[in-house]
Amino acid sequence: MSTIIRLAIQKSGRLSEDSIKLIKECGIEFSSGGGTLKSMAHNFPLEVLFLRDDDIPGYVADGVADIGIVGQNVAVETRKTLEVVRPLGFSKCRLSIGVPKGFEYTSKESLNGMRIATSYPNILSDFLFEHNIKASIHEISGSVEIAPGIGLADAICDIVSSGSTLISNGLKEAEVVFRSEAILAACPQLSAEKRTILNEMLFRISAVQQAEKTKYILLNAPNHALKTITSLLPGVKSPTVMPLMEEGWSSVHSVVKENEFWEILGKLKDAGAEGILVIPIEKIVK
Ligand code: PRT
Ligand code: ZN
Questions:
Q1: In this structure, what DSSP letter does residue 212 have?
Q2: pTM score, two decimals?
Q3: What is the CATH number of the domain that holds 268?
Q4: Ligand 1 site, residue 160, Cβ cutoff 6 A
């Protein structure tokens, strides 16, 4: 039987949709949804396993799955030996310490003597140790935010994204302990054949990630402004310039970085560009 690679992703939760989207954008077709627990891709040597996120680091470390998509927070908390292959840029969040709104928090020293409730005892104890804070850790598995309100703890250490859960529980963010995003992790002992398949996947992921940061731009430019306009649009290699039917005008095609787009747009308009179209790109292979 020819080699396949097994990828573990979260069955249902905050990571699921983006994980599935990423694999599909890599051109890998498989069925998901319903009660599916595993699914073989139709056009790539990959099997997808659908698991609870907490189980993914263990499965990957033990080689039950070869690779997995999981939050860094969970990967680090489980203390499994994993190879971090690639940050994936989604499910960004932070693990933070929250204290009651009225508490006068001045510095990390304010945490001394506190009882801190968390589902992340390992990451929290590393943080406390690193900063020489003497606090006690109260491990709970869910609804951490209510712990101070019911007298279970003085503070919490939990995942924060927008911060609204902290606020609605009468808490404020005092300290960021750990920043996290989804990562692609691999079993450190992958065979050469599996590594080849992983490398093909990484090549495709790079093309998708590059494209996400980039837009395709088309515009009309008066010929006298072409030099200025093309210098603003370096493109992958260089911009394409084609004559328009109307004398004295050209069509310019190029790519721009998403984060530079608004700044460049103003300069293009000032230089005389018209009819500017900006289009998403699906993949970029350099
Ligand atoms: O069932 P399973 O065990 O697979 O899933 P789960 O319920 O344990 O995890 P899930 O799906 O909630 O989260 C999966 C991963 O998403 C986490 O491990 C993080 O890496 C990442 N992530 C990103 C988040 C959040 N954002 C997030 N906001 N995980 C949890 N939250 C929760 C947080 O616990 C808190 O209750 O959302 C609340 C805070 O959100 P804000 O926006 O109010 O600050
Ligand atoms: Zn979980």
A1: H
A2: 0.91
A3: 3.30.70.120
A4: yes
